[in-house]
Amino acid sequence: MQLTIVLKSYEGTFQEVLARPVRALSLLLKEAPRIVDAHIFSYVSATFDMEGSPAWAQLAAQTKRNRQLLGFPAAHPILFRTGSFKSALIDRNSPHHVVEQVRLAGAGGGGLRIRVGTTDPRFIWHQEGTVNKDGTVKMPARPVVPNNEAAKVAFSKGLESLLVAQLVALCAQEEVKG
Q: pTM of whole model > 0.70?
């Protein structure tokens, strides 16, 4: 068995050739917040559309009655009346939506940390559920973002795939410009 590696011949100096992927990485850092936002939007939207993954617990009878009294459908969609809660998670224009970008220092220029979230107090109630003073469940958890290790890994791998695909596209653009 034989492995053959063929490297393309490049026009220009080594520094010029090396600058192409560096420019692509720089462009990726600029686009990363948009890519992260889009991935979160897709995940949260799908979670709301499916009413959880796994399925959220059904609403309590009292909650259904309250929803009807307020003019909303009794049972569905779960966690959705006016849309403000979902919006707080995915809409940059929502007063409760939070996006923080921090440039990190370090070897090789550091990187970028992107934090996305919400200040809406309903988030923690729905994500983790609530309990009565006696420890019994008052409201079951209805997580809207990954809440276990397998879901977090799947979410991260999906995001990683999007970022790698974008980096490949940017490298190809730089190659064409080169």
A: yes
